[in-house]
Design a protein that fits this description.
single chain; 327 residues; alpha/beta; Quinone Oxidoreductase, Chain A, domain 1
């Protein structure tokens, strides 16, 4: 089968499309024929997760496809059924999916939509539900709302009955998100949005903030929080990994700061939220109340172009790689 690998060559990370052996499922695993796989910025960062500097590594972390083989001990799945989930090496014709990560694809979703869900919306479920405790009527602030995670957070929060304020450096992208329910878009890349958030919430501030930008706006997100507000750190697009913390605000406003990660957890830790996700959010996808926003779809052979598009920030929502046509 064909599969993508990433390797550092002459000091630069490069994508390699290689012919590799088709895997066979081990106990507790499903082998799926990949029909679609979503792109995520973190999977292309050298030195993290799968992509260390010591040779070619698999690339891709979420996929959807049909089950073609089942390992021993797997229950509740049959060959031919549709599955989606987080899985290392997703940019390939076939990929292994752990049963504990496997989620049935509702009939209402096509392959492209399903390929855009597993990692992104599991991260958002962690931010909004498990740690963020977002409730109907509360206000969510998303710094970097036009990213894949940002758009998913907007969509999920609206389905939960929350108000959403988002920041972006592009007024055109913010305008496109009005159709997804964005209540207020703040066009800025600078740490200067807290006053606007406070004004929009009658001085209260955001109940939950998601920082997908990084350290350059961390202090401003803290400023924008309400009493007993919560702040999720999920991304570092700006490359800034340090920031000052206003300890007085932390103390007086009784704030809760937490981190959200996918690759920096054990497989057991990552799998823990899956049953809750299936119970709470899978019905929303099945009913159509929640739909991933897919910005564009590229063929399997054009992963490098899809990566370049993502890194250029041209998209609003997810970029998805379609399965190999002759796979």
């Amino acid at each position: 089968m064909h599969a993508y690998r990433m390797q550092k060559i002459d000091g630069r990370l490069q994508l390699l499309l290689q012919e590799v052996a088709r895997p066979a499922p081990c106990p507790g695993q499903l082998l799926i024929r990949v029909r679609a796989a979503g792109l995520n910025r973190g999977e292309f960062i050298g030195g993290q997760g799968l992509h260390g500097p010591d040779g070619a590594k698999p690339v891709g972390t979420e996929a959807a496809g049909e089950v073609v083989a089942i390992g021993s001990g797997v229950e509740g799945w049959r060959v031919g059924e549709r599955a989606m989930g987080r899985c290392p090496g997703a940019f390939a014709e076939f990929v292994m999916l752990e049963q504990r990560e496997a989620i049935a694809v509702p009939p209402a979703l096509d392959w492209i939509q399903a390929g855009a869900i597993p990692l992104t919306f599991m991260v958002v479920y962690d931010m909004l539900v498990l740690q963020g405790r977002l409730r109907a009527g509360e206000t969510l602030l998303v710094a970097g709302v036009t990213s894949g995670v940002g758009v998913a957070a907007l969509q999920a929060a609206k389905s939960m009955g929350a108000k959403v304020i988002g920041t972006s450096g592009s007024a055109a992208k913010l305008e496109r998100l009005r159709a997804e329910g964005l209540d207020l878009g703040l066009c800025t890349r600078d740490p200067d949005f807290a006053d606007a958030v406070l004004q929009a919430t009658d001085g209260r501030g955001a109940d939950l903030a998601i920082n997908g930008v990084g350290g350059s706006v961390f202090a401003e997100c803290v400023r924008a929080l309400a009493f007993e507000g919560r702040l999720a750190m999920v991304g570092y697009v700006d490359g800034v990994l340090r920031s000052e913390l206003d300890l007085e605000a932390l103390h007086v406003k009784r704030l809760h700061l937490f981190g959200v990660s996918n690759k920096l957890r054990t497989p057991q830790q990552r799998a823990q939220p899956v049953p809750g996700f299936k119970a709470d959010w899978l019905p929303l996808f099945a009913s159509g109340r929640l739909r991933p926003r897919v910005d564009r779809v590229l063929p399997f052979e054009q992963l490098a172009a899809a990566k370049a598009c993502m890194e250029a920030g041209e998209h609003v929502g997810k970029i998805v790689l379609a399965g190999r046509a002759d796979g």
